[in-house]
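Quick check before the chapter quiz. The format below is the same one you will see on the exam, so make sure you can read both the input and the output lines.
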Amino acid sequence: MLRINHYRMIFLKTEEEIELLRASNLLVGKALAEVAKLIKPGVTTRELDKVAEEFIRDNGAIPTFKGFPNQYGDPFPSTLCTSVNDQVVHGIPNDNPLEDGDIVSIDCGTFMNGFCGDSAYTFCVGDVDPEVRKLLKVTKESLYVGIQNAVVGKRLGDIGYAIQQYCESNSYGVVREFVGHGIGKDMHEDPQVPNYGKRGYGTLLKKGLCIAIEPMITLGSREIVMERDGWTVRTRDRKAAAHFEHTIAVGPNGADILSTFDYVEQVLGDKAI
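Here is the expected output.
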């Protein structure tokens, strides 16, 4: 996910490039499933990170987040972003064991055959409070509501508006400072993809546009703060936050979802969100 800044130009992708993007994104889905097998009280996010990195490298890809530069400080040190409870995005894996009732957003990126994959899923650790579980459910649903608007002829504002309306109708906060993004040979390309907006405004959606849509939604206020590590973003009020992400290609008959939650949800079974 991207802090808002100014970009350069949009690259539309060919069918061949979209298939390469799909391969990288399916690998992300499989890596998240390997992590899903281990999520339970007592495991550390550093342990999850180690498993994900080994899996990605064993499959001939490179973790794109590791070493990612930071205008606020040190490069990102890990393969996964692991954001626990009130952490919205960019949490750094550590040795603190996850506890029963926690939630953890896991964002993963790969680079393979010249193209990037990027997807995120928020997991429950043990028995999670129903109020928090509902936040996860609505955030995930809002992702698909946004994807339904990723159609040739619509505009980026239609995607953001749909996500914003869906989440705010449930009295949740929609983070403004971080947004989705174009994706291709680089992890972050034009255009920026906010989770808020106005219908009929913004970049026109064209065939071959590939974007990562990623609602970052809060149980309370949408206000955020950045921790001293220069990466971890948390809610100002310390209430829970959820994050789900798919990479998609805009097509004439709707969006083609290039990433997948299928592998994760096969692991989770009836515990899936």
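If your answer matched, good. DSSP finds five helices and 16 strands in the chain.
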